[in-house]
Automatic annotation (TrEMBL):
The lineage of its organism: Eukaryota, Metazoa, Chordata, Craniata, Vertebrata. It comes from Taeniopygia guttata (Zebra finch). This is 15-oxoprostaglandin 13-reductase. Its EC number is 1.3.1.48. Residues 77-400 form the Enoyl reductase (ER) domain. The keyword Acetylation applies.
Length: 410
């Protein structure tokens, strides 16, 4: 399958330079950081800036304590599980680490799976939460200063982003041209859609692709990537406003499951079935999507959000019928979990960043402006943002902005 229909970006584009830079062994080792971006100046090999940064850290621009969210009790009820700590010590970066001041943090459906201890049963509270952030480097270890410097905009995927500051290993960070919320949408949501469809979707021109929760954080990318592969895309959602957004990003047929019967629509409009399902709702939606598969159809299990608020984390499906249903159609069901595809993660991100830079990808951000108490601003609003997602209100990726409370020299 090929996602990129249009011409490639030139090496002068930011994303291409980023990718080229990450591949240079000299950059990963000891070369002056900015010389690899093709700039006319380079820093001395003996990096004196480190001591200045460290002194800066000891000075007044970075406080000694900060706010962060901590899981204090295992529960899928986010408000019960999570506590806002007001005066946690700001962590110190180790040799290969960056200290990132978070500006935007992403809400994920699985934040409540994480707070329920479903990711790693051996981890006991208290523990940090929040999967991803975008911000700027405010201090760093000497090892990390080979590739980074204070002021660099970065994004990362690492537990503990629901905090004013997060220590991020430099190798896990992605340098960015600027601190923008759109970049955050690609880190988990975009990469999940790209890698799962590339590895498991077997997309090609004319195939019919059903995306459930299509107007959400990851659904929006599944729709657009399937369209880029010249597929016919059907998207489910819960409101006409979401349907309008889906149309705007190229979705061929939207189904508002609150006003239309998804099963009947699929049976009537797609009597031969759908070739691929990007399924992230679970329960009844899983069952009807499975029934709608074409011969040799593929259903990719991305998640099952409809069950996450249950104590078990699941909603029942008609599993006993599964073998017969698959056999009758030579169909298949595939699970996809981003953590198992990390070897391809940088490639995926590079691809998505190039698409975004070329204007070929909409990265819709929902700051909750239309939510009852307005925009999600500050760590306190993470609770509201999680509620908003579980009310099914969001269009695009839910992002919380963390305004800077400290006067910075940066
Ligand atoms: N496998 C992986 O590695 C991976 C990575 C990222 C995300 N995911 C999965 O992808 C799915 C979407 O996650 P996301 O973070 O991008 O969230 P999201 O799609 O931005 O938000 C959730 C959306 O799901 C829809 N939904 C349908 N039934 C729901 C229900 N019973 N309760 C709440 N929402 C419901 C709602 O939209 P409508 O009702 O309008 O459709 C809601 O807006 C989740 O299942 C998540 O676990 C998996």
């Amino acid at each position: 399958m090929s996602f990129s229909a249009k011409s490639g970006a030139s090496l002068s584009s930011w994303a291409a330079r980023w990718w080229w830079w990450r591949r240079q062994p000299s950059c990963a080792a000891a070369a002056p950081a900015w010389s690899c971006f093709g700039g006319s100046w380079s820093r001395p090999i003996l990096d004196m800036s480190y001591s200045r940064h460290f002194l800066d850290f000891q000075g007044s621009s970075i406080p000694s304590s900060m706010k962060k969210l901590v899981v204090t009790k295992l529960s899928q009820n986010f408000r019960e599980a999570v506590t806002l700590q007001q005066d946690s010590p700001v962590p110190l970066p180790g040799d290969g680490d960056l200290l990132v001041r978070n500006r935007f943090v992403g809400i994920n459906a699985s934040d409540i799976n994480y707070s329920a201890g479903r990711y790693d049963a051996s981890v006991k509270p208290p523990f940090d939460i929040g999967f991803e952030g975008v911000g700027e480097v405010v201090a760093l270890g000497l090892g990390a200063s080979a590739d980074y410097t204070v002021g660099q905009a970065v994004a990362y995927v690492k537990a503990g982003s629901f905090a004013e500051y997060t220590v991020v290993p430099a190798r896990q960070a992605v340098p960015l041209p600027s601190v923008k919320p759109e970049f955050l949408t690609l880190m988990v949501s975009g990469a999940t859609a790209y890698l799962s469809l590339k590895e498991l979707g077997d997309l090609s021109e004319g195939k019919k692709v059903l995306v459930t929760a299509a107007a959400g954080g990851t659904g929006q990318f599944a729709v657009q990537l399937a369209k880029t592969a010249k597929c016919h895309v059907i998207g489910t959602c819960s409101s006409d406003e979401k349907g309008g957004f889906l149309k705007s990003i190229g979705c061929d047929r939207t189904i508002n499951y609150k006003t239309e019967n998804v099963e009947s629509v699929l049976r009537k409009d797609y009597p031969e079935g759908v070739d691929v399902v990007y399924e992230s709702v679970g329960g009844k939606m899983f069952d009807l999507a499975l029934n709608a598969l074409a011969i040799k159809g593929r259903l990719i299990v991305i998640g099952f959000i409809a069950g996450y608020q249950n104590p078990t984390g699941f909603q029942p499906i008609k599993a006993e019928l599964l073998p017969a249903k698959l056999l009758k159609k030579s169909a298949s069901v595939h699970g996809f979990f981003l953590n198992h595809y990390l070897s391809d993660y940088k490639m995926a991100l590079q691809h998505l960043l190039k698409m975004y830079e070329r204007g070929d990808l909409v990265c819709e951000v929902d700051f909750g402006d239309m939510s009852p108490e307005g925009k999600f601003t500050g760590l306190e609003s993470v609770f509201r943002a999680v509620d908003y997602m579980y009310m099914g209100k969001n269009i695009g990726k839910i992002v919380v902005e963390l305004p800077h409370s400290v006067n910075s020299k940066l």
